[in-house]
Amino acid sequence: MSDQQPETPDRDNTVDAFDQIVAEESDRDPDLAVIEAGSRTLRAQAGAPQGDPVPSRPEDPEVAKALLEVEQELATRWGETKLEPSVSRISALMDVLGEPQRAYPSIHLTGTNGKTSTARMIEALLNAFELRTGRYTSPHVQSVTERISLDGAPISAERFIETYHDVKPYVEMVDAAEEYRLSFFEVLTGMAYAAFADAPVDVAVVEVGMGGSWDATNVIDGTVAVVTPISLDHTDRLGTTPGEIAQEKGGIIKQDATVILAQQPVDAAQVLLKKAVEVDATVAREGMEFGVVSREVAVGGQMLTLRGVGGEYDGIFLPLYGAHMAHNAAVALAAVEAFFGIGGEHARELDGDTVRKAFASVTSPGRMEVVRRSPTVVLDAAHNPAGARVTAEAVTEAFGFSRLIGVVAASEGKDVRGVLEAFEPIFAEVVVTENTSHRAMGADELAAVAVEVFGADRVQVEPRLDDALEAAVTLAEEEAEYGGAGVLVTGSVITVGEARLLFKRG
Known about the structure:
By secondary structure, this protein is of the alpha/beta class. It has helices spanning 15-19, 21-24, 30-33, 61-75, 88-97, 115-128, 157-177, 184-198, 235-238, 242-249, 266-278, 323-339, 352-360, 385-399, 416-423, 443-454, 465-477, 493-505, and strands at residues 34-37, 106-110, 133-136, 148-150, 153-154, 203-207, 224-227, 258-261, 282-285, 291-298, 301-307, 312-318, 369-372, 376-379, 403-408, 429-432, 459-461, 485-490. The chain has an eight-stranded mixed β-sheet with strand order 5-4-3-6-2-7-8-9, sandwiched between helices. It has a six-stranded mixed β-sheet with strand order 13-14-18-15-16-17. A four-stranded mixed β-sheet has the order 1-10-11-12. The longest helix has 21 residues, at 157-177. It starts with 14 loop residues before the first helix and ends with a helix.
């Protein structure tokens, strides 16, 4: 653990402000949290720019070829949407690998929305306190290597290839012994746990792929279990109510763990709290034991005062937009405090300057990410109605566009009507398109739903994503003389990743 030990807080002036959280945060109304439009920024605290956090294809042709071969081998396995709900295969792989996931403590995250951003914030905080981290998140925005990170950066293509070949013989052993071969996600999970043990890391930050109980990641015993907001998604596999979904996601809560609960629907909260009681876990709830005390819009992000389980932290600049990101920050802070043993009988807090430096360094590619100016183009990976609603609120608050054009491409099986209805009040027009994934919903099929939501005169169809982006920018530029026009690209992580590549190359 770092030499920067948490210090005893001065709590005299924190209680009154925090007493307001329970009432104010109960419905996440952003108008309650935004005090005024500010212009301050603390970006300087983050140090020099770190460059694009998303890796590009390897420049060395031999490495690029080897990475492609690994990707092609992984692609022969079950994809992430085809599941056999069991941890038997991943458990068998861990056994033959020598249980690498036991070599370090873990912070395990589940929920419907906000997992990746919260994981990145947790990672930044742990790094700031000089701990070596491994982070496993999914899906990736542009490169599969993003899913496995060490010390805040995706592992190199060379290391990804080496790790794959290290575990491949053991994967083949398990394949031969089990009824079904290991899936794409199971193999990647095994690679991540092996890479973390090999590094070695001080702590792993692990995001579930889907659900919790039978998710491949759930062969770890997270000392801290984080549950971000639960809403309806993957209802065919997880359940049709937040409570049913919480039953599955609560499977990551282990004996004697500390559980950090973001605000939840009542039925989900009841299920999660019951699970915590059953395994004698300690619970910290957003809006009760921790939360967002105040929030102001600032240039390039927002200024926050957060109440952790150990004390209050003010003057935090978060270079991400939206009330939901502020709530993710509160959850991340509480998770790291819990990891350090803060809360309960431990009356201490983390070093405030280190916390501020960590949050000022956070990035979250493809989440409210600006990739172009004049007109402004924002990318956000919202792919379900709950995510779309918070994105719509965040875009309205942070940018105040006079006219906003949407570009939407979605995956089959998603509640696209719910997503489009969430964006309808803020989109002047929408360009519907499709990404290159085999799971992509066809542009014409998506357009049929969009016409019902927006009306035919507000919908344009462009089957190719590059054409859709060009059309949206052109529509926005038609309003350029008035200023304030923008484009939001959304609908899926794949859509955002492909759009990001196109803008970075342009």
